Amino acid sequence: MVNLNYKTKTIPKILGGHTRNCLEIGRELYGSSIDEIISVSSTKVAEMTKLLENIHRAVNIGLINEMKIVADKMNIDIHEVINAASTKPFGFTPYYPGPGLGGHCIPIDPWFLVENTKSGELVRLARKINDVRPNIVAQQAVEQLQSVGGNKIGILGVAYKANVDDCRETPADAILAYLQSAGIEVRYHDPYVPTWDCSRVNSVEELDDWADTLILVTDHTCYANLNVQAPLLNTRA
To answer: Would you name the residues annotated as active-site residues?
Structure first.
């Protein structure tokens, strides 16, 4: 989701330079548009910092996606568990389950480290868990569809995160591929993505009138209070 508390200007910028002069020129350049510049000793440290940020998120998202599977099998509400754990004032950061990873930073950037060092077993495991999430969601949608009959599934939201028009690496791609391979007719709705260039699926304004089952993939603000007739699979629940 777009972070409403921070903008590019107010997020500290990590900066390393190949030489001291490079660092100072960089500070002058970014200082005109960024409130706080954090200098580090080299460009390698700066790049590793960015990778660590992304890997931290990828691994923790993988963890909560796996805990979601475990909680479902035990008939436990994972969100109640997360909310309870979040009452601890230190040592815990809440992450939430979803349909899979998207964008460039989290699913792709960590592989720069993994592929170049031939290490990163935890990163590989987290990716394996996150990569399978779209298929799990699609399978749940198929089961829901079978329970109500029909052959039409509508996807709500195809951007990789809320309130943006960016579809890079969106988990909606894998969900769509799974559903189409199962012979299911699919349409989508996304107010930020009038044309989904990465697929041949059509956009439908009134999915609830068309679909036998709906999947909420992207938690756009406009979907916050959905009132639909068709059965809804909320991938964020």
So the answer is: 105
